Amino acid sequence: MTVDSIDSTHPPAGASLKTWLAVCGAALGAFLAILNIQIVGSSLADIQGAIGAGADEGGWITTSYLVAEIIVIPMSGWLTRILSMRTYLIGSAIAFITFTVACAFTHTLGQMIVMRAIQGFAGGALIPLAFSIIMTSLPRHQQPIGMAVYSLAAVLAPSIGPVAGGYFNDQFGWQSIFYISVLPGLLTVAILWSTVAATARQWDLLAKGDWWGIVTMAIGLGCLQTVLEEGNRKDWLGSPFILNLSVIAGISLTAFTVIQFWRQEPLLHLRILGQRNFGLGTVLNFVFGFTMYGWIFTLPMYLARIHGYNSAQIGAVMIWLGLPQLLLIAFLPRLIRLIDPRILAGLGFLLYGFGTVLATPLSPDFSGEQFMFSNIVRAFAQVLVMTPLAALATGNIERQFVGSAAAIFNMMRNLGGAIGIALLQTFISHREQYHSEIITTQVNVFSQAASARVQNLTQHFLSVASADPVRAQHQAFMSMGSQIKTQASLLAYADTIWLQGACLFAAFVVVLFFKRQHA
Known about the structure:
Blueprint (H helix, E strand, L loop, with lengths): L16 H25 L2 H8 L3 H29 L1 H19 L5 H29 L5 H30 L9 H14 L15 H20 L9 H23 L13 H32 L3 H8 L4 H6 L3 H7 L2 H17 L14 H23 L7 H41 L5 H17 L4 H43 L8
């Protein structure tokens, strides 16, 4: 019987409590996997000091996790069919907990990189598998509720990660951040063990596997993620290391794409991107990742560099990205049933853009409290965007393509975040240089206002710090230079926020091209 043929007087049967527990357990696993990206980033300096890693080397503590995670996500559908959903999901959860704890016992950078890579490989599987369970286990009319649960995990974890990481690191030491996941992780395993049904394993798929696709994908995505993570520190293509990895990534990903369209049973069914709603939804999920992770990168950096905030103070600001989501998420499934998801997604992107540009009037007095309203608006907007967007993108995907759809959709959000952070790092640097040059040309010794400012500062330093006129004048010029640098940084961060807002307003336009979804 099709959905269209069900009598409205007899509502369709809903999922059992056991199925809902499985959905919640899988979503909790995805939450922990995403949380561990941000929670380590907030404590990276202390971890580097403890294991004797330099600033550049320490970046691999984060990079190794992200590389492993983004490699395993596209493989999740294939591995699920080989091992079965139950074995792969529970096995990944157990491995994730084990190697998360192991990270706390490392003493060298090499040990930490290995543990983080295995942790990322296990955690990366939990993200798309939660998505797949919702699409395959829940009836169509209840999938929006499942998507709401998943969306809460996906957008709440990055928002509270810096808060939790900063607090535990300051109170109990850097090792404690790896213990946060233990009890929720054990709960995840217990729920999945008792709710996910055993199914047949398909070991014969190993022999039929798209091995060339797996190799080219792993090399391509691994190199691309490394380029994005390390490029800004190493001057991008000015570094032979980054240039070589970029070439390898380009060749490998091109070969991977060709293989996927050529094989009858590919690792990922890229042809589903030709379905209008899924293709557009995947593009918008990339933009969503770009702006969500971009904001989580930009705001803490701004607060630390311009206002000298510590991790606890930054966490107090960032928490407002998470708390409002808890209020709205319970009402979202009903909203999706009552209102066209296209309208909700469009409204969400508009609010998202509006909440972003609210933070553009940056100044030396614009700090934590001034970001509260912007963060609250963005928090509500994130919930309005992600669940309807997932419903629009995957609503008409055939069951045999669910694994590919889950992998592609989630991988693009992660890629959006990785590319967004890399681009924004470079964008901020270039805009700081640009604004500094513009301001410097306007502030020179021949400018009457600049000369008056230097004289005032010189008199100030003569009165409070120095009796030497030459030294006082030098201090005045140094103070002017610091002010120019601060103003250039403020303008650069404002430009970065405007860029993210523009992307979100453009995403609203794309929503207009979605096809109406049929029940």
